[in-house]
Amino acid sequence: MGAAMRRIQAGSALSSFGIGFTVPFLYVYVAQVRGLGSGAAGIVLAAFAMAALVALPFTGRVIDRRGPLPVLVAAALVGSVGAVALGLSDSEGTAVVSAAVLGAGTAVMQPALATLVVWCSGSETRTRAFATQFFLQNLTLGIGGLLGGQIVDEHRPGSFTLLFSIEAVMFLVLAGIAATVRMPGEDAALGLAGAVSKGAVTSGRGGLGALLRHRAMVQLCVLGFVIFFACYGQFESGLSAYGVEAAGISPSTLGIALAANTAAIVVAQFAVLKLVEERRRSRVIAAVGLLWAVAWAAAGYAGLGHGSQAMATAAFISTYALFGLGESMLSPTVAPLVADLAPVGRVGQYNSAFALVKQLALAVGPAVGGPMGATLHGPYIVVFVLISLGITVLALRLGRRLTAVQDRPALARGSRVVAGGGPTRHQIPAEA
């Protein structure tokens, strides 16, 4: 791992540490601490994600033309402002605006960081680089959630203001680290200044229309939407609301559940990596759908099983742990696949498009899952068991659209041709 990659991974991890202080408690903060109710909480959480729909369509082209580092610095500064504002919000209007600012900043960070990982890695190291990033992000996210759970007090709004302040400081740290990164290689340096290599300029034409004609990428985006809707779109809203309302889970236990999610990732990530590196990506994703169906069934037992509170709590925490195991299987498959599908010079646009799909799912997820998880407990579980099974079906269909190397990168070992990459890398032609 080079110096640039080490700094990128460190900055990414520290920003996730800050996010961990607030993620498990957003619903509780808006609905209960500020007394705005579950409906307002759903709107605020949706605004957090909807802001990406405005920011991300422009992000990819800026990354490819100006480089990911200046985009990352600007996004981190915007996110810091939004975090402070949200921590001080005491009305629905100010909370919605603050969440939108915070959401725009954090959304733009994602494709910028992903593009940096691609630029600093080759085909043989990319899968492990993305797995390492995911491992570090979730380790620090879980630590932040665990520490935040010890700080929060539902009767002291100031304790939540402290959490958002910590998040803001970590974003500033990310901006400072990104500002000191020096990308390896002359062409990468030119990319940061806004002048990419000749091959990137040639391949970068086409825009959204060309991406929409890329059937494999379109199918991956549809699959990504369902994945994020069924998992991340519920963590901060529907699943936490369901846990509080149906299973009697306390806010501090939400932090423990997130820590269990992280623990599963920390324990399983590199063991899983060794297994999935040799297997077809589409089948790994299909297996995640089945695993998450079991996770939702465990959540159903927690809220609908009529057992003891201890059993309900254990089942609810195991839901988050099973989600974490699935996430550890997705991290070395989905993000590298996006990069491998991207033509040379358009990796920023492809990463931004996929991040846009994620944020769309995060916008729809809370709006649907929040009220549903809080009131329609049985239907909520049934719907998401079925959605998880749908992930399996969509993944298997995607596998038919991928080339052999895109679906199973291990086949390309020993070859001098790589499947995608940064500003000067060659690529196996993606199916259009």
Task: Describe the structure in your own words.
The chain is built from 19 helices and no strands. The two termini are 33 Å apart. The protein is mainly α and 432 residues long. Residues 185-204 and 416-432 have low confidence and may be disordered.
* Helix/strand/pairing category: mainly alpha
Distance between the termini: 33 Å
Strand content: under 5%
The helix/strand series, from N terminus to C terminus, equals HHHHHHHHHHHHHHHHHHH
**Shape summary:** globular
Name a few traits of the molecule.
19 helices; 79% helix; 0% strand
Short description:
Helices cover 79% and strands 0% of the residues. The chain has 432 residues and is an all-alpha fold. The protein is globular.
How is the topology of this model organized?
Elements: H1 3-20, H2 26-33, H3 37-66, H4 68-88, H5 92-119, H6 126-151, H7 157-180, H8 186-192, H9 198-203, H10 207-212, H11 215-230, H12 232-245, H13 251-276, H14 281-304, H15 309-330, H16 334-341, H17 347-375, H18 377-399, H19 404-407
Helix pairs in contact: 1-6, 1-7, 2-3, 3-4, 3-5, 3-17, 4-5, 4-7, 5-17, 6-13, 11-17, 11-18, 12-17, 13-15, 14-15, 14-18, 16-17, 17-18
